[in-house]
Amino acid sequence: MNGMILLAAIVALALLGSRLFVVVGVATALCFILYVGEAGTLQSLDRMVVKMESLTTKNVFLSIPFFIAAGAIMTKGGIARRLTDLASALVGWMPGGLAVASIIACIIFAAISGSSPVTLVAVGAVMFPALVKAGYPKNFSIGLITSAGSLGCMIPPAIAMLIYAISVQGSAAVDPADLFFAGLVPALFISGLLAIYAIWTGLSVPGSRHPFSAAEAWRAFKGASWSLTLPLIVLGGIYGGVFTPTEAGAVAFAAAVVIATFVHRDVAPRQLPAILVEAATLMGSLILIVVLAFGLNDFLAEIDAPGLIRNWVQSADLNAWQFMLLTNVVLIVLGALMDSISATLVFAPILAPVAINHYGIDPIHFGIVFVVNMEIGYLAPPVATNLFVAAAIFRQPFVQVAKAILPTLGIICVALIILIYVPAFSLLPLNLRDDVSRPMEFPWSGKVEVETTVEPTAAPTDPGRPLTLEEMMKQAKENVDEAEAPPAPAPDRPLTLEEMMKQAKENVDKQEAAETKPEATP
């Protein structure tokens, strides 16, 4: 009965066209009311407030508003157009050159903005008309640009990777900088497969090539030189240890403002407030989704969902390759039915500990595979975010966009299977950088019998920041409780004769004291 009420509420909100955060919030509150017994109280709402407060202590999350604002300024500032002109001048001579240039432009722009939808909007608005005008099939152009735009999930500093790093803790925790570095080769691998598809298609498009011109390439390079400094600054600073991924967001925002406003002068200073308001609206909805998804995580921990999944996995007696295959099928379905960010926040804390503790999957490798699944989620109907974005900017029916994406979506699914079972794609760069030997062979049949626990969603401690007043009071109370705690009893052992006589005398004295009542004094 409770399940029917919950399902009816979600369906009703979806039919009314409610925003995603409203659906997630109502579903979370109903879960606590129906299954945990919090009806008549405001405890489930209080959970959301606590989660929002804890979110402000997560340094990784603080970088996301800066990247979103930087992407909005770059979209308005003509940076995407300059990057596409340069890519076209460099590779326009080859078969499918303009299509390959679209992929390159998406890679470079994603390395600045970190956002998949922002990359699709910025590059797609420029390249889609150019591809159609050059004679490429319309469905091919839609599918290629929509898929290449989704590379924003994979190209550092990807917001999807930051969200994953926020959601997992404990044994599954990963450093965002490591995740960025490990995602480079998989992103280039997927881009290469899309480029091969573009070249193959370009062979049948007459007149789509133009001779290479060094003068044209030089002019395009000079026009895009300042735009190219953005990914160099952001990625070079992160990988060079100059600043953290959190600080990289602020650097990207400041550089985007300077270049778009004072160098290219495509954005007037008076336009900045309106652009920032638009970015703040997007960020506000993202914060609500994250907070409400964290509340849903609390409910899943309350009913011991990780334990249920772990027990089911153990009873099913799955090998590592079977578990990963099943996990990815489930994630693709989930990504097609719900927002990718919500899917990450809800299911990454559940699945990652099982993969790592029970099957010995490397945390970085599992994180990369999870993010690739979320990239597919951006493309798989019916709830794929980028399909709605593509339908809007290309002014095409949603059904046509969903049909056009199928060939490139199939290419990315093939890439996902390869990335799952060949961990070297994601781990080899880290091994070379750190001079370590992380295992790069997939544990096909291995199992690691390690008990997993529910991973907390509280904010991780940051030794580089001062403690808040609440944290200091909590720490002081723990120190006092520890000092006042009685000593732990000694392990059981046979008593000596002297100890037995002393214990017997103490018992007799206690009994005599209890039987003797003092006389009342006048």
Keywords:
522 residues; mainly alpha; 23 helices
Provide an overview of this structure.
- The longest helix is centred in the middle third of the chain and has 31 residues.
- About 6% of the residues have low confidence.
- This protein is globular.
- The chain is mostly helical.
What's this model, at a glance?
The protein is an all-alpha fold.
**SS-derived structural category:** mainly alpha
Shape: globular
Whole-number count of domains: 2
Query: What are the low-pLDDT stretches, counting only 5+ consecutive residues below 50?
Result: 450-470, 483-493
Largest sheet: none
According to DSSP, the number of beta strands is: 0
Secondary structure layout:
Elements: H1 2-15, H2 20-36, H3 43-55, H4 59-76, H5 79-91, H6 97-113, H7 116-133, H8 138-149, H9 159-167, H10 176-202, H11 214-239, H12 245-263, H13 272-302, H14 305-316, H15 320-337, H16 340-359, H17 363-377, H18 385-394, H19 398-404, H20 406-421, H21 424-434, H22 469-484, H23 497-515
Helix pairs in contact: 1-2, 2-13, 3-13, 4-7, 4-9, 4-12, 4-13, 5-6, 5-11, 6-7, 6-8, 6-10, 6-11, 7-8, 7-18, 8-10, 8-19, 9-16, 9-17, 10-17, 10-20, 10-21, 11-12, 13-16, 14-16, 15-16, 15-17, 16-17, 17-20, 18-19
